[in-house]
């Protein structure tokens, strides 16, 4: 059935699917000698691989939680869970751009990567905001609750 929530779900899933190339690139950094840090780094040259692994699994956890909240029953879709989705997606997408104005090296490595980041964030966040009524429609007015 086509309704606003299902459109929102489709936008979210499309955004996550577009982001799979970026997620796979993160996994591919692990074990790649090009992603070693300087030999005088006290944490070991392969420490950057550890951070790539942490990032990749954190991204997977975010994706799974947001998908669960979008596809769960009406009882799960509450205002608080919408705000949780917003915080999770902000944490997922803001690092793409948050450092760039301050440290040029924190920008996407190519125009193609930048476009991928923009597309995946746009569709996932569009899905989140499109779904907002489905998360807020179950609010029980205080006077109705006290009357029962």
- Largest sheet properties: none
The helicity comes to 55-70%
Radius of gyration: 19 Å
Distance between the termini: 33 Å
Counting DSSP E segments of at least 2 residues, the number of strands comes to 0
Provide the structure class.
mainly alpha
Q: Please state the average pLDDT score.
A: 90
What is the count of DSSP helices, taking H or I runs of 4+ residues?
A: 6
Element-level helix/strand string: HHHHHH
Q: Tell me, what's the shape?
A: elongated
Low-pLDDT stretches are 143-148
Query: Strand-residue fraction?
Result: under 5%
Explained architecture:
The protein has 148 residues and is mainly α. It has a domain at 4-19 and 58-140. 66% of the residues lie in helices and 0% in strands. It contains six helices and no strands. The chain has helices spanning 4-18, 20-29, 47-71, 79-93, 111-136, 142-147. The longest helix is centred in the C-terminal third of the chain and has 26 residues, at 111-136.
């Amino acid at each position: 059935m086509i309704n606003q929530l299902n459109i929102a779900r489709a936008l979210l899933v499309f955004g996550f699917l577009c982001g799979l190339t970026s997620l796979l690139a993160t996994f591919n950094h692990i074990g790649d000698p090009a992603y070693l840090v300087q030999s005088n780094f006290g944490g070991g040259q392969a420490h950057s691989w550890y951070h790539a692994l942490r990032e990749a699994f954190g991204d997977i956890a975010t994706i799974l939680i947001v998908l669960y909240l979008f596809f769960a029953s009406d009882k799960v879709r509450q205002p608080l869970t919408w705000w949780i989705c917003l915080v999770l997606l902000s944490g997922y997408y803001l690092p793409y751009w948050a450092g760039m104005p301050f440290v040029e090296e924190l920008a996407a490595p190519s125009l193609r990567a930048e476009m991928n980041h923009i597309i995946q964030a746009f569709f996932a966040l569009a899905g989140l905001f499109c779904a907002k009524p489905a998360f807020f429609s179950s609010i029980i007015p205080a006077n109705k609750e006290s009357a029962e």
